[in-house]
User: Fold this.
Amino acid sequence: MRDTLLLDAEAGDPYACLALAYFMETGKEMDQDIPEAMHWFEQAASLGCARAHWELYKFYMAGDYVERDVAIAVAHLVESAELGNVDAQNALAIEFSTGDIIEPDLEQTFAWCRRAAEQGSSIAKFAVGYMYAHGIGVARSGSEAEMWYSSAGITGDAEMFMNIGMSYEYGLNGINHNEVEAARWYKYGVDMGHEKCMLCWNSVLKSLGGAPREPLEYRMARLSETESQREVDDRNSHVADADSLLESGDADAAYEHYRKAAELGSPEGMFAVAMMRHQGIGVKRDDIDAIRLLSRAADAGSEDAQFYLARTYESSRFPTDESQIVKLYSDAAYNGFLAAYYYLSKYVDHPEIYTRRTHQRR
Assistant:
């Protein structure tokens, strides 16, 4: 695989460059080599890959792999946003709003929020609505605000609704305190069966009815004690224990912890169980069961499972159709397995655009 990738990268394929960079950064499929990874990220960016520019922005801002350089970071951020990367567009809007690393400009904040919203970003839709509602960077318009709010309510997820509700209820993240608006956004999450939104919604309704508003610290403590949060904590604990046990050489115990994490809905746990089942580590090898578990992990959102299941289907050992392979690669790319863009490019033109258009929800 490395030879083919290298040939395509040297021939000027930006997604081959991106795949090489990703494998070398993460140590997946290849030995980890950070200097070489940075080289290939730079090559991919120079060939017009928006995602490579976005990764380089993060590297130069963090200063982990390279010396921190805000000017270079901003240049990559702007280029990624101009090339259509929604994450970059949202980040650039925030930077123009805060003025931390670039000159503040509320009109530019609105413009970049609008571009991200028009590509389907749910949080950007909310931001555009809020800016219209309050006349921030654009002329005030109640009708435009409600249109964008409604669109965000249709496409957003429950975690986003809870965060917006908390921001309104407690005046966080630059949002004006408004408990009526908080109730509206919590209710979107309640309708999706989100336990934490239900807790917050009930509390804010009591406050609107005249009861004292619950202090933020107390609310956060209550949220941390919900059943859904305890499940998240439990499965994360099992994954962490399994990782440690596997590193120490106790594969049998590691498998049991991964299995418990998988039973609690952990995509990482499901993927680990599938791979251990495939390789016969800590358990008897069973490739048929491994594929079943890999499929479950992919459905649960594991980008590793999505990528490796697509590769397995491409091998023709298991029957599937091309559309399923394309979906799996697109899901993996969207969830952060950057090498998937290269393999997706074998099936569709402009894989970054394809992935953005098939995952319009952020």
The radius of gyration is 23 Å.
